[in-house]
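HUMAN:
Could you generate one sequence with tokenized structure?
ASSISTANT:
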Amino acid sequence: MTALTMTEVTLTYPDGASRLTALDQASLSVDRGELVALVGPSGSGKSSLLAVAATLITPDSGDVVVDGVDVAELGKSARSALRRDRLGIVFQQPNLIGSLTALDQLTVAASLGDRSRRATQVEARELMDRVGLAGQEDRLPAQLSGGQQQRVNIARALMGSPALLLVDEPTSALDHERGAAVMELLRQVTDERNVGTVLVTHDTGHLRSDDRVVECIDGRLSERSPALA
């Protein structure tokens, strides 16, 4: 099943008397269980693509379908529900709340839905174990390393079993070893949890020969091999 389909999406921003094109008829399809690495220089449109896929920005034209739902047909509240129930977003910085434990980082946002507290707690503990942080549930962010904080960030995004995971530069603040471990974790959870993952990265050194790589240049997308990315 397809987690994300973007068809000929164009997005522009005001730029003085004219408009700046961020996405230029960009098309992308990501299946569940598939990880797509989105590469390209700064200002090429990668972050804009993530924002459109996350339903945070409405494009000028084109179609965006998330887990079979046409985003254009949704009102504001329905889009919020879509983000809550079917999307997971991993920010470049973990943005963890300093006063909350690692476990609470996962359960607070999930509590906004209609699931029981017990079910939320069970899922949060399972995810903490899956990202390699079993036994660290009661630690505050200041007591965790940068790599551990990013793992909490990933686990938080996976709460509720989203169809689509959008990841923005997860290794930018990590050393090579921790960055490689986070990349491998993302590959594994993409497969195990059958989620479609779009990963924006500048660090192509972490890509493998079997990764699917899409390059974004001046808002246009094209497939690339990892060796050429």
Remarks:
- Residues 2-95+163-224 form a domain with the Rossmann fold fold (CATH 3.40.50.300).
- The radius of gyration is 17 Å.
- The longest strand covers residues 2-15.
